[in-house]
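Weekly sync, protein design subgroup
Attendees: M.S., D.O., the rotation student, P.L. (late)

Item 1: inverse folding check
M.S. brought a backbone from last month's batch and wanted to see whether the design step gives back something sensible before we order anything. D.O. pointed out we never logged the input encoding, so this time it goes straight into the notes. Structure tokens as presented (271 positions):
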């Protein structure tokens, strides 16, 4: 795997010249608009990058964006990969490893998720302080390469406390409703049943989604600090559960995106 990572990173470097990103960003479902805030220097389609997995979702663009945001050099994934698309965990997290090889020092992750905490509402934001992994595979299974990270990486602080606190402070200063909570990762692609929502809340979840955790595990494996934030696009409250469509989820994510963008931009500027 290390050979493939290095091969991909070298190809990208040949296309972006002396540009060295210090921040990596993964943009979730319906949240690609942050790119409009980036002073773009270079764009690469996933399909043109050797060994790079291609997003199969029609609402994920599938581009690596290189440019400046908040005065920092960034590389942003406009379109992420999911287990339910048929990729294995090593493929899903391959871009994180490549971004690390390109020079990033911090990883920022966004996603769209469903609210489990009855005090939360759709359209709110939630900074992830911890997670519960219910996905069936782990990206670190298999032979460990010590050049990438340790065999048994510590996960006592998967999301950096200082970034969490700064993100919440930025939200408060801008009158943005932003909670702090635990994210539960499931496989998808179906949404949860009434009983499943109840179970996920009982075990400690505040929000549920189908991404993020594999990337965070690999980031921690490689020593990358992480900040992750969710847009709560629907409500998984068993007593008042209603049908929800992908179109509705995308609409809520799009409406909430300017708030998320403001928080990420100010956080990155303050690094």
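Designed sequence read out in the meeting:
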């Amino acid at each position: 795997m290390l050979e493939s990572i290095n091969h991909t990173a070298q190809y990208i470097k040949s296309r972006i010249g002396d540009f060295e990103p210090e921040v990596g960003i993964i943009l979730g479902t319906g949240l690609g608009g942050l790119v409009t805030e980036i002073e773009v220097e270079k764009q690469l389609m996933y399909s043109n990058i050797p060994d790079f997995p291609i997003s199969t979702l029609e609402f994920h663009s599938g581009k690596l964006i290189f440019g400046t945001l908040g005065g920092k050099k960034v590389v942003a994934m406009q379109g992420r990969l999911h287990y339910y698309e048929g990729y294995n965990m090593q493929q899903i997290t391959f871009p994180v490893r490549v971004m690390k090889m390109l020079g990033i020092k911090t990883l920022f992750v966004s996603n769209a998720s469903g609210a489990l905490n009855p005090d939360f509402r759709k359209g709110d934001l939630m900074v992830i302080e911890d997670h519960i992994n219910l996905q069936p595979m782990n990206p670190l299974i298999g032979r460990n390469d010590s050049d990438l990270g340790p065999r048994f990486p510590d996960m006592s602080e998967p999301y950096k406390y200082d970034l969490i606190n700064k993100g919440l402070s930025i939200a408060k200063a801008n009158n943005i409703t932003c909670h702090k909570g635990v994210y539960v990762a499931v496989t998808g692609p179906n949404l949860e049943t009434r009983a499943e929502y109840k179970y996920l809340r009982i075990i400690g979840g505040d929000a549920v989604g189908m991404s993020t955790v594999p990337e965070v595990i690999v980031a921690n494996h490689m020593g990358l600090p992480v900040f992750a934030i969710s847009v709560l696009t629907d409500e998984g409250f068993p007593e008042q559960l209603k049908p929800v469509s992908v179109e509705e989820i995308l609409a809520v994510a799009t409406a909430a995106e300017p708030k998320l963008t403001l928080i990420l931009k100010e956080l990155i500027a303050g690094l």
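Discussion: The first helix runs from residue 2 to 16. The radius of gyration is 17 Å.
Action: P.L. to compare against the previous round before Friday.
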